[in-house]
Amino acid sequence: MSVLHRKLYARRNISFQGKALIVEGPVEAAHLQELHMHPGLKAFRRPDEQKEALVEIATLPEGRIILARDQNTIVGYVTFHYPDEMETWSSPSMEDLIELGAIEVAKDYRGAGLGKHLLRLAFSAGQLENVIVFTTEYYWHWDLEGSGLSVWEYRRMMEALMQTVDMVWYATDDPEICSHPANCLMVRVGKEVPLSSVEQFDRVRFRRRFMY
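Predicted structure:
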């Protein structure tokens, strides 16, 4: 089965503390090259290294970057791409299984609802209805110190954020997710995804059910 990766560019203007922020995407690599990363975007790696990762993802056929920017400074982003080949979710290879890999907003720009704006734009115009989108939430990636939230408060916040685009909690026996009760798997099955793909994804979610 060959999956068409629809990339329909959209742009929204968001007002925040007297500033006019722009939420846009999917953006092309050339556009990303012209922008700067906010120094607060360091949840996953150094800002300059993260920018390189965003540029690389934008060049992938299935890759998409949705970003929020203050003029030429990226202050938030969300990434979509195939699961890393080292991850459980990459095998068996499914062309219609896409990972929401990272979502991050600089601390200075929190409170504008940018996370919700990024996700809603990403799923707009039905462009992800022909794929299963999943995200693995691990507590060690969360900004617990900066947010002042407990692990469980942050978990509830992330679930509420993902639910704005109809992503819901799914059970799994994946060892990494099961390593801490706050970790979770969130999934959205597009309306055009065939039952065969859903069943295949279920087999990936529960690889160890026959071991007991």
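Summary: The longest strand covers residues 73-81.
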